[in-house]
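Re: [help] complex structure
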Amino acid sequence: MIRLATDVGGTFTDLVGYDELTGEVFTAKSLTTVDDQSRGVLQAIADAEQSDGLRRRDVTFFAHGGTTVINAITERKGVKTALVTTSGFRDVLEIGRGNRPDLYNLQFHSPEPFVPRHLRFEVRERIDAKGNVLTQLELDDLKPIIKTCLEEGVEAVAILFLHSYANPEHEALCADILADALPCATICASHEVSRQWREYERSNTVVLNAYVQPIIQYYFERLEEALTETDLTCPYYAMQSNGGIATFDQVVKSPLTLVESGPAGGVAGAARIGALLSETEVLSLDVGGTTAKCSLIKNSRPTLDSEYRLERSRINPGYAVQVPVVDIVEIGAGGGSIARIDQRGALSVGPESAGSMPGPACYGKGGSRPTISDALLTIGVFDPTTFANGTMPLDVEKARAAIEMLAVPLGMSIEDAALSVIEIAHANMINALKLVTVQRGHDPRDAAFVISGGAGPALAARLGRDLKVKSTVVPLHPGIFSAWGMLAAEPRADFRSTWFSPLTGDALTLAGDRFVVLEQDAADYFGKGHEAEIRFSYSIEARYRGQEHGVFTRYEPGDSEEAFSERFHAAHEKAYSFRLAHSAIEITMLHLEAILSGPVIAIPKLKGEVISVEEARCGTRDVYFGGTEGWVSCPVYARGRLRPHTTLQGPLIVEESTATTLVLAGQQLALTQEGIMIIREQDHSQSGAA
Amino acid sequence: MQAAAGGWVDPVTQEIIEGKLLATVDEMGIVMARTSMSPVIYEVLDFACGVLSAEGELVAQMNGITLFTGTFGAQVKALIARFGTNLEDGDILLTNDPYAGGTHACDFAIVKPIFFEGALFAYAINVAHYLDVGGSVPGSLAPNATSVFQEGLRLPGVKIARRDVFSDDILHIIRENVRLPEIALGDLTAQVATVRVAARRMGEIAEKYGASTVRAAFDHLLSASERLSRAAIAALADGTYHARDVIDGDGVSDAPIAVEVTVTIAGDSIVADFTGCPKAVAGPINCARGALESAVRTIVKALVGPQAPSNEGWFRPLSVVAPSGTIFTAEKPSPTGWYYEGSVHASELVWKALAPLMPARFSAGSYSSLCVVYISGRDAQGEPFIHIEPQHGGWGASETRDGANALIALTDGDTYNYSVEAIEARFPLIVKRYGLNVEGGTGAGRRRGGFGIIREYEIHGDGAEAYCSFGRTVTQPWGMAGGLAGTLNGLQVRCGVSGNTRTFGREPHIALGNGDVLRIVTGGGGGWGAPIERERHLIEQDLTDGLLSEAAARDTYGYQKELQQ
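Output below.
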């Protein structure tokens, strides 16, 4: 009865396994194999067999997350793709939205489309916004297109017709004809991946889906084959961007749902921890080597980003895609982020990162520029000898030398310069965390703050204090938390469809009827028959008449207009600070979230001998807090030896193989019966003092 | 971290305060885009937010559009001059006066003085384009207006709230003087929400670091930007550089309007002198001094630090010289409704003068004009509608790369085109085509200009009308270094009954019947370098992509297909 998950990241492939009968835990970390990620996965499994005695025949559940899709896109390694679209609109994909976020750059260009102009074809057909056919699909127009696709060796064809979200019949007919005529190519019609309006966004979605589909299909077929060959046979799942899992067969049809697979694993894990602690609002932060990613879980469910864009930055509009992606704000602040004095004379941290090669200066692999990890080592939070279970000794002198490069121009001591680096990373993280909470109408004081990633727990206590969160939570296996989250995820699918209606008369009844159809789509998707227990959540995107952007509002079957309107007003007020009680309301979209109920990971209570707190203590270390406090002697504990319900007063340090947790003076650390660490302010009147 | 009171801030606190300033203006922008009632704001993002020092110097601005690059300081300084010490906590000010640092009457600026511990310590501003502010035509921008009094309600510096309570009188005046009062007041509510958010955030920063530290951080930020700006200018060759251009008509007359600039770079400062430009014209393409400053600053920012956050410091090395009462320094009552059609030429003059000095930062001339079209009428339910749309077009080539296709003009920025599906769901219009304007071509060159667009609207229903103001309908975008000039903008209307086509540039009224087709055409940008030097593979790629005809390849680029062996 082993549940097993592997998460392929940019540098490492993480593995976590858990035997629900015996309570055994298996972990492994291997280097990611860039050319074929499945080799790294098999290596990690082999490593776990060797080191932890993983029994692959006992694996009953296998979840896989990775970067195959996003890599294929960012490295432009998809297949040769064509686009068939409504006559008059072949350039929509290239024009995009025509915006120039890099406003003072007089040489700005929109991102290149994934289909060149000569492979973008037009056919005569037209449907209006209500779904009425204005012009029949002209089948003769397809003949020269098929000919060119064959000549050009096109491997995938995307189809986008205007208003196909309202009426997909032309797209479906076109897809059938092309599938017959081009049996070797992937054919993908936009309505199969998105039932949302906005032609550029939907075109780009279907194009990218087609662009990666053959590659992903090949990848999963090979991975499945390799797993089967090595006797790891069980249901195989992939981690999707929506925080749920899907079978390999399902994701191969719409691979774009895997675009943020890895980060979504972390969010799924944070949701599971929230459920265990009976916290419905969870703020999660995962601090990796290069970036920190934060996300909000509301009412026990991950929030989805309705305007997700690939490769977006302050100066790049990126590529819009209409697939459900958990709302993650990512900033360039991780353990390897480089600190420097910039041309303004200011100290800045990130987004440039030393990555894993050469890595921070303290890794001693040739890196010389100061990073957040070097700062944490310099002030004593990290132990040079016990880092990563002692497998990776850190070089304090190299770290100090790197930090000194900042200390000299800043006119500070090395310790104060290190503290300054952490201070700035901390401020950047607070800004991002506020973006997902305060700026979206949510109060962090209502949230449990789950922090993971290699460098996360070292920064957790201070971030939690400044945000005034209810509690700061360091989960199990914080350094491989995305993989752990995949173990905790359930099969999930999201169905969104654009539908306009004023909120009057029988609109909610009609919406209810439409949801019944979507429920049937969900049942078909899971393919488990009528017996399957599927949990549905319904939401409706609505807006005040005259507005463009809507607000997703929970809908309950049988809702009265009054009840739903009131919930909408409240949601609008929460998001945007005001309500227009007398304005008419319009519905723009329906969203059904479907989760297939099944066994979820049980988190065992800690077992083992009863030992005293003193026996869990493994030493004492001086940590530099600056200001009037200076160096403070802190007790160090081994996490594996701390027993349930232990409470300890900060300042203190807890070490484990993948992370180091710092607890501040004035804070209390408590362990749950599962061994999850909870940090709270001892005296609430002090919380927020910073 | 500690901060000294004596005007010095440690670099860590400085960095943190700057980060919070940017987070604050970004947050204002998010609130505005999501809460606005008006499509001009939520789709086109025709608004901007900023935070200024107590002296009215811009310290942070959201990344929105370039039109407001330099107007905030002038506007807030005009309000400081007007109100002096007569400001207290809870006041919110409103101004839309073009002659007091503003742009045109449609742009409502909401300004909140921010107090901390009883003292004024910063201002927050939000400027947004209102769908209608009254005046002679729906949308308030008559392309043939001859006086500001035809361009709607002006509220040149009034207190719209005292002690955080709205003035019912002023709301009443607005409600009774604009055509779509619900949208106007909705936008006003959204704007006020943003400046209140800014006041809260600034209060939090002052609470944490102390007001004197924050003020010192403002000073430091401005002087650091000034230093970088001066260094960039000092690296350019000293000298005097000229540029000339022609504005195609003012909306009242089609007569060409010749304009010019002299840019002088001396050491680490730069002067843009518009002496010699004609007096204010009869039509509304004039801009006032605030908009001129903004237009020049846009190009200076592009020169000295395009990606760095904007603030007043970058512009300290710049002086803008122009006599009063010209087309670029119009005074009351000259109309300024379509000021950006004039001010963009002030930008482009400076751009054209500086381009040869710094090819790494500049490109050849672009389609320039926002080519805004207003279509109004009644939908199938008999409800009135107005569809306002700036158009995207072709940009000029740079020394190393072909120009960009279909981008929004210089005056806007993070400005989206409208989704065809969203338009058809909302208005009685069917879009027949939206694509690159290949038939119109582009400026040829070793690097060619980018392509403009063609967008065709078929009108469904009777009694609709349109008006528009398109620049560059006669004078092409300029080429660089031997590159050819770009191509022209224009609006064509084909009658659904007769099939006749008429062409327009700046036009106050076009009656539209059922089945008429409005064809919006924007031009391609200018080329860079001689066409004959264009590499073979680039010509062939354009042929493959259907962007170039065989005839043009031969005639313009001297391209010969290789002979069969």
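The longest strand of chain A covers residues 585-596.
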